[in-house]
Amino acid sequence: MDIPLFPEQPGQVSNGARWHARLAILLSAPLNWLPPSMIEKILSRLTRSYPSASKEQVQVIRDAVCTVSKRCRSQEGCLRRSLAVVVATWLKRRSVSWCTGYALEPFRAHAWVELNGVPVGEPDEISLYSKVISVPNFGEEIAEKYGE
């Protein structure tokens, strides 16, 4: 997957967030080799039972993932990065939506995370992408159910 953008410029993150990101990258690594349908099934199960993370939480997690992994920080690292962010939010007992899509002329594919339909940490160009797979988080429904 690819999106023409500059390498990520992550913000400062704590050492704890860095270790958490390393664990998430390690746990999410096998997902990179699975077919999209299997990734979708696995992530649906992960995001089903936890409330939504806040935008700030997701941005810190995303920054930590980009800080500790050169591959996740690169232009070609969107799949690895987005999967690691979903797993990291799951480790914190929160959820986030995972999406993949494409844009034409020139053709390019991309994977990203969203909260309430809004991409987190992505350039404005993301609006040009058509979603192919979207794994929603059910966090808002959970929050309403339990009064969070």
UniProtKB/TrEMBL annotation:
Pfam families listed in its UniProt record: Transglut_core3 (PF13471)
GO MF assignments: ATP binding
Alphabetical keyword list: ATP-binding, Nucleotide-binding
Lineage top rank: taxon: Bacteria
Residue span(s) of domain Microcin J25-processing protein McjB C-terminal: 30-131
Record NCBIfam families: lasso_biosyn_B2
Name of the protein described by the UniProt record: ABC transporter, ATP-binding protein
Protein source organism: Paenibacillus alvei (Bacillus alvei)
